[in-house]
Every structure is written in C-alpha cells, then in structure tokens.
Write a structure and sequence with these properties.
Blueprint: E1 9-13, H1 16-19, H2 65-79, E2 83-87, H3 90-93, H4 104-119, E3 123-129, H5 147-162, E4 169-173, H6 183-187, H7 194-218, E5 223-229, E6 233-235, H8 240-262, H9 267-275, H10 286-292, E7 297-301, E8 306-308, H11 342-356, E9 360-364, H12 381-399, E10 405-411, E11 431-433, E12 445-447, H13 449-459
Parallel strand pairs: 1-2, 1-10, 2-3, 3-4, 4-5, 5-7, 6-8, 7-9, 9-10
Antiparallel strand pairs: 11-12
Helix pairs in contact: 2-4, 5-7, 7-10, 11-12
C-alpha cells in the first residue's frame, strides 16, 4: 500500500444541530431539529409542533460547541486536521427562514469559527443545509412550496458573499436522498405522500442547481458538491428476481445523484413518476437550471451496506431505516445493528465513480459505540480497528482502482448527539464529552486512544495503516 495523495484532505465532520446547543441564543430561531425528542434504538424520536415543557430535545444543549468551539477546534488542530466539515445553522442567520435581513449575531459566530480554523490552517468544508430547516417555513408547507427555494437562495447568497475567499468547498444539502427515508430531517416534510416528497425533492434540486451557478459566478474557485447518504446494496442471491429487486432499490436512491451529477431526471424515474400519476412542478427554464447547475464533486456518507431482493418493497423501513427484508450473515454489526463492511466502502467508491466520473469525497464514516470513561481515558480499540479497516479499503480504491478521492472527514471527531436517535451514548468521537442522554454532565473533553491514533494517521499520510 502506497501513501495517500500528498494533498489528501484528512479531517472530521459535524453538524450544527448535533453539536452547537445554545438553541435560542443571540437571536437564533427554531429549526426542525429543535422539535425532535430523544429516542433510542427501541424508541423512535417524536416530532412536536412546538417545544413542549415535559420533553427533552437533544439539540437544545448538544455538546455546547457554541461556547466550546475554541477548545474543540484546538483539539482538531492537535490531531492535524487539514479540513473540517461543518454546517451553518440556517436559523442562526435567518431565525424564521424567510426574513429579508440576516441576523448579524449569527454571522459573527461563524466569523469567529472561521477565524479559529484559519489560525490553525484548517480548510472549512461547509454544508449549507444540514438537517435543520427553519420551523418558521412550515407556514408555507416547507419545501413542498416553491417559495422556500427563494428563502434558501437568500440564505446561501449571504454565506457565499460574506465568506467569499474564506470558504472554497461547499455542499448544498446534507444527504439529500433522505427525502425518501426521513423527510422531516431532510426538508421539514412530515408526510408519507410520495407526491409531497417528490415535489420537495424537486425544489431542493432547483435550489441546489441555482446555488452552484451563483457560487461559480461569485468566485470561479468555488467548488460545490452534493452529499449522498450512502445506501449501497448487495443482491440477496443470483436469482434474477433478487437482482432486479436490488436494481429497483438502488434506483430509488441513485436518482438523487443522477439529477445533481448529470443535470436531468433519469428515464427510470420519469416512468415511475408517470405510473404514480405524479407531475413534477416544472416551470419555464427549470430544465436548463438543472443542466447548468451540476455539482463539481460528489460526497458521501458511508456506514454500512444492505442486502436487498424481491422481498424489498419501496424505500427502507425500520427504526434506523435499515430493514430491507434481508440480513447479511457474513458481516458483524455495531451496537446499533448497522453492518460493519469495510470492503463495501471500496465497492461504493467504484460504483459511484463508474457512474459519474466525478471526484469523490468521503465526508462521513465512523462507528457509533458505547464508550467507557475510566480514569479520564477511553480505550476504544474497536473504533481504531473499524477506522483502520475502512481506510485500508479506501487506499485500495485510490491506488488499485484509480478512484480520485479528495479527502476523508471522519464522522463525529468529537462526541455529538446521534441524528437517528438523539442519544449521546451512541458515541463516535476521538474526543469524549462528559454529557449523558439527558444533557447531564460537566461538558469536559477527554482524548480517547483513537485521538492519538488518528493523529498518527494524518502525520504519516496513512502510512501507519500498513502496521499490523
């Protein structure tokens, strides 16, 4: 195994609603994340119309990055991060989502974060919308309404202008294909109606394409990517029915990439919409917008793979969206039941590059596990082994298969609340945060064993992975 490319972007990734806390500080408004209650592996998170007194909402406190960002970024720098993927909370800038003038206090917070990143020469990779649509946009019907496109463009334009020459890498939407699996987190849509979901998805495609064009006009050096929630699947058997079932499942996910990377809806999706009697709300000039607003690169999350076949009906079901009707008996599982499949990462990268021939970036990959803090230390050898196995397969994809991978931002370099359940006990980080599922704790930060290991990975540009 050779070294990774010399300019490879090593780092970590977080989301504002999962780390910041301070949910109403300095003029911030409520987002869709702020009305999601605590859940668990057995209990689904509840969505409330407003903040209820007797419920606990994990995003309200999170890990209080809002007041700890200098300390946390210093720890990222100590690990040697080249890049930090972060998101900017829409409701810190436009509290209700539809104001005409941004909240200066919110912008100043992100000014300060960028100052810290620049101090340590860490490149920011910014997700414009990461699972936190302003709750104030519910009065329009959220992303089902075309007016929300204009609200999003206004938000993005403020960021692109304010941070011109400070931020080069952008993602328009986090895991946009979650519109089909978790529409509330993806778009503030709480509906099982496929017409509603596909209308909202269409509006996000238009919004993303417009932002790509605007970003390139403001600064030709801007690079704007899409972000795919990494659903990849193996056919249950060689039975043609299982192969076709798997093809249909992948179509339900990949059409999101097709639109953003190719600039048009694939025929298989248009025929499906026709069968469902769903008419897309296409306006004059929209098809040109989609074509001209193709992304510059494709980023993805990767945690697990699925098995699908003739029994797989529709989109993923289940508590964490992983029940396809089949189990993979060849793979171990995490504490939360997600398969652990390092080779699947290499397969996924090949699958995407074969399809689009665009540069790729892994912007989420990690292991949610139960960690034990003892004597101010966490011996998380299981996390090190998980990441080592995945990074070895990433190296093969680059060196053997020739896949152009820009970088790798491990998900949750610091413990954060889990998007799927809202739990703190589902820990991902290299840094342990002393806070429990109900927000109790000192908020003190502790370096896990994996902290020192990842620092060596970055220092050696991956060479340490060759050591047994």
């Amino acid at each position: 195994m050779k070294m990774f490319p010399k300019d490879f972007l090593w780092g970590g990734a977080t989301a504002a609603n999962q780390i910041e806390g301070a949910y109403l500080e300095n003029g911030k408004g409520l987002s869709t994340a702020d009305v999601m209650t605590l859940g668990s592996h057995e209990k689904k998170r509840r969505i409330t119309k407003s903040v209820e007194e007797n419920e606990y909402y994990p995003s309200h406190n999170a890990i209080d990055f809002y007041h700890h960002y200098k300390e946390d970024i210093a720890l990222f720098a100590e690990m040697g991060f080249k890049v930090y993927r972060m998101s900017i909370n829409w409701t810190r800038i436009f509290p209700n989502g539809d104001e005409l003038t941004p909240n200066e206090e919110g912008l100043k917070f992100y000014d300060a974060i960028l100052d810290e990143l620049e101090k340590y020469h860490i490149i920011p990779l910014v997700t414009i919308s990461h699972f936190e649509t302003p709750l104030g946009l519910q009065k329009y019907g959220s992303w089902e309404n075309r007016d929300v496109v204009d609200c999003y463009i206004r938000f993005a334009l403020v960021l692109l202008k304010r941070y011109n020459n400070r931020i080069k890498y952008w993602l328009t939407f986090n895991e946009i294909n979650c519109m089909s699996t978790q529409p509330w987190v993806a778009a503030g849509i709480n509906s099982d109606d496929e017409r509603v979901r596909m209308t909202a998805a269409y509006h996000q495609f238009i919004a993303s394409a417009k932002v790509v064009k605007i970003a390139h006009k403001i600064n030709p050096d801007n690079k704007v990517g899409m972000m795919y929630c990494g659903h990849f699947s193996y056919a249950y058997s060689a039975n043609p029915d299982d192969v076709i079932g798997t093809m249909n499942f992948m179509h339900s996910m990949m059409f999101y990439c097709d639109v953003q990377c190719r600039g048009y809806y694939p025929q298989y999706k248009l025929k499906e919409l026709e069968r469902l009697h769903i008419t897309l709300p296409i306006q004059e000039g929209d098809l040109e917008i989609l074509k001209e607003g193709k992304v510059d690169f494709l980023s993805l999350s990767y945690y697990c793979t699925h098995v699908t076949g003739k029994k797989t009906k529709g989109i993923l079901k289940g508590m964490n969206g992983l029940d396809t009707g089949y189990k993979n008996t060849f793979l171990p599982k995490s504490d939360w039941g997600w398969t652990i499949d390092p080779q699947g990462l290499r397969y996924a990268l090949n699958y995407l590059y074969d399809r689009y021939q665009l540069p790729l970036m892994i912007v989420e990959n990690g292991l949610g596990a139960i960690d034990q803090l003892e004597d101010n230390k966490v011996h998380d050898t299981y996390r090190i082994e998980y990441l080592k196995a995945h990074l070895k397969e990433l190296s093969k994809a680059i060196e053997i298969d020739g896949i152009p991978v820009m970088g790798y931002t491990m998900w949750g370099p610091i413990d954060l609340i889990a998007a799927s359940t809202g739990e703190m006990k589902k820990r991902y980080g290299f840094i342990y945060v002393d806070v429990d599922d109900l927000g109790n704790g000192s908020m003190k930060r502790y370096k896990k064993d994996s902290f020192y290991w990842y620092k060596k990975v970055i220092e050696t540009n991956g060479q340490i992975l060759e050591e047994d």
